[in-house]
Amino acid sequence: MLAIFTVILWHTSTFVPNLSRFAEGHLPVILAEPVVVTGYLLWWVGIPYFLITAGYFFRKSSLKNKDPIAQFRRYVSPLGWLLFGWLCIYIVIPINWPAEVISHGWWQAFYTAAQKNVDLIADKHISLFLDGGRPVWHLWFLPALMVSLAVLTLVSIFQLQKYLIYLIVSLYVMALAEEFVGGYFVSSTIHLGHWIQAILLTALGWWFAERAQPSMAMAWGLIVGGYVLALIEGMIMMPMFHGSHQAIQQHTFLGGIALGLGLFLLALAKPSLGQSTPFPFLARFTLGVYVSHPLVLYTLRPILWPKLGSWPLREVLGALVVYAVSVLVTLGVGKVPIARYLVMKPVRKQPRAVIGDAN
Predict the structure, then answer these.
(1) What is the pLDDT, as a whole number, of residue 195?
(2) Which residues fall within 8 angstroms of residue 153, CB to CB, at 6 or more apart?
(3) Which terminus in the chain has less CB density within 10 A, N or C?
(4) What pLDDT does residue 272 have?
């Protein structure tokens, strides 16, 4: 639940800027900079956790099944349909759809949004899926995960597991190199940062699937050490890039990777953590909440945000409301026979062992 909540908080788009303005306006510099960098580390709590988890269980499944191609199809097929279904939805939904409908009516609002978004896809096509631009937004995660699993499938087919750690290091160096040359390879419209990070993190989860059970000390060491290292990275970058929020936001934090990995290993080291709370029940809605929460955000932002005022942490309360409504949406859609596959992966009866790992 922590991971998906940080994703929603990040997608409010105003949390980090508001936190930065509050810190810079009310705190001494020695405290303001760590607070600002902490805001940017939100991303490294959410998405990396999901990618590391996916890589870990993908490898666990591959150890039980001898057909990597079949396993790849089982994982990727439902992700592809999820991507297609939700992309169709976000193409026709205006960002501020309640106000657009009131001003222009249902047909004009949705037709105009669809026309603009189709033109964007025709013009920018692949770069939208690499960057997560409108109308793809958060859905970039799905093709990035599919590509990551494809890379790991090739590693398995060609028995290259012993070189996996070199791949991880190479991807990190490539991410830094992309930042150094201005964030772009191939042409001025192709930005590979998110996908490089996705392959790196998924491969990291795969690699740890063959390691011994982690200890609590190791997990907490990575969490605390990663957080401190990320703070140091951020505070070094701020004067170098004159406080450029874009440069810091796009940076591949080595400490952020360690932080995300530590959170995942904490869940492995203490699987009973949170079992007596509602978190295990809420966890089953995570996929549906991830794909649907921007739609909920579109709906609630013009209604809820003005009522929350301008206090610095209003986005936290707003994100909690968005999360709760997204859970209800997922629960409701999940009860509709056909639409349910928009918020959950289809359950396959065979093979049973793979289902347990995939879910």
Answers:
(1) 93
(2) 68, 69, 71, 72
(3) C
(4) 87
HEC sequence for the chain: CHHHHHHHHHHCCCHHHHHHHHHHHHCCHHHHHHHHHHHHCCHHHHHHHHHHHHHHHHHHHHHHCCCHHHHHHHHHHHHHHHHHHHHHHHHHCCCCHHHHHHHHCHHHHHHHHHHHHHHHHHHHCHHHHHHCCCCCHHHHHHHHHHHHHHHHHHHHHCCCHHHHHHHHHHHHHHHHHHHHCCCCCCCCCCCCHHHHHHHHHHHHHHHHCCCCCCCHHHHHHHHHHHHHHHHHHHHHHHHHCCCCHHHHHHCCCHHHHHHHHHHHHHHHHCCCCCCCCCHHHHHCCHHHHHHHHHHHHHHHHHHHHHHHCCCCCHHHHHHHHHHHHHHHHHHHHCCCCCHHHHCCCCCCCCCHHHHHHHC
Q: What is the dihedral of CA 257, 262, 265, 271, to 10 degrees?
A: -130
pLDDT tens-place string over residues 2-32:
899 999 999 988 888 888 888 888 888 788 8
pLDDT for residue 350: 47
- Helix axis angle for 141-157 and 193-208, nearest 10°, is 50
Cα–Cα distances in Å, from 317 out to 5, 15, 93, 269, 311? 11, 11, 24, 31, 11
187-206 average pLDDT score = 84
Taking alpha carbons only, the member of 293, 129, 100 closest to residue 195 is 129
* pLDDT beyond 50 at 159: yes
pLDDT digits (tens, 9 = 90+) for 221-253: 999 999 999 999 998 887 777 656 777 888 899
Task: Kindly indicate the confidence band of residue 355, based on its pLDDT and cuts at 50, 70 and 90.
Answer: very low
pTM, full prediction: 0.92
